[in-house]
Structures are given as structure tokens and as C-alpha cells.
Specification:
alpha+beta, 21% strand, single chain, 47% helix, PH-domain like, four-stranded antiparallel sheet, elongated, 163 residues
Amino acid sequence: MKKRITLSAHNIFEFSMHHTYFTVYGFIGVMISLVALVGAVISIGKTEVYNTILLFIVALMFTVIQPVMIYLKSKAQAKKNRSIGTYLEYEFNDEGFTISDGNDSDKVIWPSILKITTTKNLVLLYTTYMRAFIIPKDSFKDNYEEFKNMINNNAKNARGMIK
């Protein structure tokens, strides 16, 4: 199965948000923000103003500031990376898949896929904890079920499945 896939800055942003917030550290960060928000609200009028302001800043750190920073980083990464915004040619078969940008190509065998995750718009095929192949679901509009079955049947070593 061959597909031309184009990644966008939005795809990189969605991957980065998922990778950041669907971890223990992401959960802890959100909990810190929520506790700081509750503390800030409770402290209004009961402590010095700068304490309340500091608590509001901490509350914003993981819920507003970090997502904005991830968005800006994703846009910058999209500008730097020549493969984002242009097409990548993926060829999937029973052994693995090959990715080509027209000049270079890379082959990935199914046993090297460690984890499979899906988001609303993406399929993420992890080969390491930090590196994943990002595949937009809309690239497979017409044959998503075939794609899903191929990945789930062949990437047997991976944790997770495509839903």
C-alpha cells in the first residue's frame, strides 16, 4: 500500500501536545496547575497580592504557557524541517514500511515499532520513547480499515493498537 503523506505544523503540534500531556509528567503538571489555581482563588483577599499573582502564574504554566510554547516550537520546527509541508512517500507491506522524500529513504521493520498510539487525527508509530512516525489519519480516508488491520496484524511487538 503506497500513500503520499504531508505533515503540517498542526500535526506536529498535536503530536507534541499528546506526547507532553499523556505522560505521568503531563498529568503532574496539570495537577500542579489546578492546585495552584485553587490556592490562588482561596488566597484572594487573604494574603499579599503578589502571592495570589504568583499562584495564578503557576496555574497558567502547564495549562496556557506550555501549550503556547509547544505551538511556537511546532511552527518553528515546521519551518526548519524540509519534510514538513511537502509530501513523504510511504510504502507499507507485511515486512514494514519505507519512507521516502524523493531523495532519501528509510526502511522500518515491524518488530522495531515499540508503541502504537492514536489521537483524534493521527496515528503514531513509536520506534523509541521520543521518536514516532506521525501519520495523519485523513491520508487514509478511503482505506483506513485496511491500513489499521495491516498495522495491528504486523506490529505484534508494539504496545497498543490502532483504534
